[in-house]
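=== Structure Prediction Worksheet ===
Name of assembly: unnamed complex
Input type: mixed (protein and possibly other molecules)
Chain count: two
Listed entries:
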Amino acid sequence: MNQNKYNHDKKLIALVVLASSLLLVGLFYSIYVGIIIPSSRHGESLGLAKMDVQQYDLIVDDGFELVIQNCTSCHSAKIIVNNRADREGWLTTIRWMQQTQKLWNLGENEYAILNYLAKNYGPEKKGRRAQLSDIEWYELEEGN
Amino acid sequence: MKTDRSNTEKQFDAHASRRGFLKNASIATLGMILGAEIVFGNKLPKGLLPIAITGDQNPVIPGKHSELITLNDRPLNVETPAHLLDPDITPTDVFFIRNNGLPPEITDASSWMLEIAGESVIKKTSLSLRELKSKFKHYSYQLTLECAGNGRNEFDPPAKGNQWKVGAVGCPLWTGVRLKDVLNHVGIKGDAVYIGYYGKDTHLSGDPGMSPISRGVPISKAMEDESLIAWAINGEDLPAMHGYPLRLVFGGWPASTCGKWLSKIVVRNVVHDGAKMGDYSYRVPKRPVAPGEMVAYDDMKIIESMPVKSLVTNPKTGAMIKKGTILNIRGKAWAGDNSVKRIQVSIDFGSTWQNCNLKDPVNRLAWQPWSTRIEFPKKGYYEVWAKATDDEGRSQPMVVPGWNPKGYLNNACHRIAVKVI
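=== Predicted Assembly ===
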């Protein structure tokens, strides 16, 4: 009987310890997520919990880490995200940065970086004039 | 609508408090939070948190309106939504930012020196900021500054660079001394053809030997009355982002000619060859080319006066009005070194145009406010298009103008959407 109660107490203590540690982990995790990685769900699959924070709006795909390592120590990821070019166009940009902006030789990584850029940030056909888009409609009162 | 607004406010508050907490942290602490060193963290403008930490698409920039659109946060490239350009004199907090490098941190400008040098000055001279302000007459002009790449996002095939939409333009009031008064004081030789500038900003690579940008203008533009060495915008010292304590201002020309954090002017006997004067930068083909065509360097020319252009600044795009409402339409028009002689709007996709009231510029090279009133004939979806014509008869095209490799000079008609309900 005593032995049983002892075992029961041990189980209870273990459960409490487990529950509180889970709570603590959860608490820290939510602080971590809430404060510093509000929009970086992308990178978790690649195990990039911290690194991808910096590049939260880059598409996660093969070559993502190489782009972070080689491109974003000099400029923001925004300039990549906002641009579009085919493989040749991105290569021209890389060569221009090497000639004028002190970008280093990318060596064998260049192939993978170009794959990433051309696939994820390739040109879109816009034609001579695009439709007006992203209009946020609002009511305008008389006497505007 | 109300719910949306309060949600947005709540989100904003949450972001603001997170920012408040983080703003007090040092660069090293921020680095620890990120789990990585913030490269060039010491070059981050004070009060501006890296986007990496705020996680915001649009970081709040000290002294700037929260609705500005950040295209790039290192270096800062920030544009103005058209409706914020409605005041005739562009307020400093909405004026666009185009930095090429990282701004210097200057707390005390009392020892700031401006050097005038180059092969075509008679005597190399240095002037302190105080001498500049005391020796020469002060002038104030409203001058239109527009990035040569404003509108780049519409080119197809796309051109690399900041994908400006419509808002890399503004017309604040600048105060300073005439560049020509300073050049005449120093004395320039008869063979002078160009001036170039150097500023105290640093190259993104951190290499102190490299200049992020060093452009200039032909001597004829430098000697115009409105070409200023300025220390004030809208009556106050230039903010850090806009060149504190000293910059050049050339109205109507690519804003890249208006060197910020100005420390040296060179008077050249050749076309200035500083950073971003060559290398296709701020150059367009000498002849029309097909979209995507490879253009040889020798077939490119430096952009000088900007083309005729206009914006609809009121209402903000997306207005829904009741049938029978008369809509007040307002905007601004400008034409580089020229003036605008006519502004028209169309609400039927360019089939018919009506003339608007157009004001004269307050001074040469200032933009011109325009306005009209429109009653829409029936319910439905409309676009208001604005088209300006300059004093040489050149109008804005309704489609994107001639393609060029770097995506400059898109002066296609501005369009806003209106629904009549």
